[in-house]
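name: query_chain
kind: protein
chains: 1
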Amino acid sequence: MNAHPLIRHRKAIIIVFGVTSLIFGLLIPFAKMEPDIQSMIPADSAVLKSMLQIERRFGSTKTAMVIFTEEEIGPQILAELKKSADPLGQIKGVDSVQSLDSYRALLGSSSPEEFRRKIRENPLIYQRLAGKNLKSAAIVIRINPRAVESDVVRAIIKSVHRTRGKRPVVFGGMPFVHLQIEKDVPRDMATFLPVGLLLMTAFLFFSFRELRGVVLPFLVVIMSICVSMGTLVLLGWKIQMITILLPVVLLAVANDYGIHIIANYQEEVKALHAQDKPVDMATLAVSGFRRLLWPIVATGVTTMAGLLCLTTHIIKPASQLGILGALGIGYALIVSLFFLPAVLSLLSPPKKRVHKEANTPGGRALRLLGELVSGYPRTLVAASVVLVVIMALGIGRIHVDSDPVSFYGSKSAVVKSTALVNAQYGGIQLISLMATGDMKDPKNLRKIRLMQQKIATIPGASRSLSIADVFAMVGKTTGLGSSAHEYLPVDRKETLKWLSLLKGFTREKALDYLVSPGWDRAHLMVQLDQGSNRGITRIAQKIDSLRDPSLFIHMSGPAILFSDLMERVVRGQLVSLAVSLLVISLLVMVFFRSVMAGIFAAIPLGISLVVLFGTMGYFRITLDISTALLTSVMIGVGVDYTIHFLWRYKEERARGLAPGEGVEQTLRTSGRGIIFNALSVILGFSVLILSSFEPIKFFGLLIFLSITVCLAGAMILLPAMVLLLRPRFLEPPAPEPLDKTV
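structure:
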């Protein structure tokens, strides 16, 4: 028996890896979901801290809306709203419920025309509980921030359907968007895996034309997914929208090392059959292990390093994706190096076949590619430079956004309900300001009112609401106020008098979201009728420039939180990009013991990055939470092709081949495995186009583009550069002078 430890302990190796993967796989059903984008923000965020301060004073900013659409609303709708609203108030986790019925005493049993006039004149009702065109009415539900949002929202939907029956209703607000995300994430994962595994199986069979070439890389993928997803459960992390990329990354990348092992095994079998020599599977397993150990370790470590660079990302799910992805790739690397050869050594030798790869379309294409590169290296390098310049011009057009509603297409229910809220109820996005001081002092009320008037001039800030609006409503309705004083009280005594009249306008504690119980804090709410990050940032900056910091001590809200999130995404993108390029280059330098090797590896990656971002700019593809992860994934995966080419080319030069011959031989041999590797990655990520989320679909398309450019860089540009520059680290050692040998 072969004395190599890999063969002596092969059965133990198979059992250990099999049992380990099974144990981790059994943990996957216990994974939990987290659809709320707020959870992505680190706890030390100043914006998040300000928002929590506001929520502690005025209650949750999580507002859900149930909208009843009518031909035109009138007094008859009050009973219907009450029928649905009362049960909603009994749901555990609901802080408050408001509808037109909450103002029944004010609206009374007036005529339809009078009913609608009173609505228009009441800022607590108009465009908040009744639509702008008065053809819809809303029940506004505030959800306790400590409650499980998805459970509360499901209970709301169930209750409304029970009371409303089959009559039309629209569910609006971020809690319903979050619930839709929570539904779609597991649906995507349930789609990606079977479709991806089916595509991978078909591809592997087409590539290797034998069962072992399909089953063994397939096993590596399944085992790595089990360990990675099981670790997510062990660490107590939750599945978020970004996390659905994890099994797809492993599906696309984890089989790469197995593909190279199978490709090398078939190459050696072909050579033995050509020489009519017997095939010993144990010897082949050890031979492949020794030949591919360092190239596979190098590619695996660089891929892990690229993914681990996501830990520099401020967004928590991105950091978690990097850690879990690197763990899965590391496990796939070890499984490929030990488990696969152990299994191969136990299999029977393949039957002798006539190999004619050189005359196949693929073999002829690789031969022609080698001749093209060796014949026109300067032309190919010049063409690459022109491409880089053209694509670099598009980088400045990249658009950054964070609106969760943009995750869906224009025909989705989420987008349609959001459009209704934006048009009729002021908008789904909210900016909050907290004012401090005696809110029974008319001076402070006028300052708040003045701030609202300034905000009204900002495009995109559709409406605002504060305690000053409530006093103005009382002043107008009772005739106690005057336009000279903005219909506000003139002194504190008058303020107290007006407060006693409020009971006739609204229910007790209905103003808790606008003023604190001690009347020492006030809440100014600004609604936005747009969700784009650029628009939110512009509005927030303008409001910040207008506010008096001595009065408005906190400014935050979900809209600013989303804007802050995207600023962190961009910063994280730049940091992870710089770190991953540096780390990958340093690792390549170490593996090849040459500084020039790191530079050579960085050039195809740099070109791929320019093409990627240029394409995003030219085609207006949004840089968002998902697409911001592209660089680290692409750099970690794309460098593999460069390493395999350089490693094999160095071997061919050491065998005595001339540079041109070395390039052609490398492309004919390792080029096959490199192309299989790249195609498997592209096919693996192609399942993302089936996603429910637009950013995930674009992620799949952009990965296809970037990996294709990395492949072209490794198979065309890199060989051309090698021929032109003849780097020393790839050249064989110079022969000893004759007099020294003598």
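note: The radius of gyration is 32 Å.
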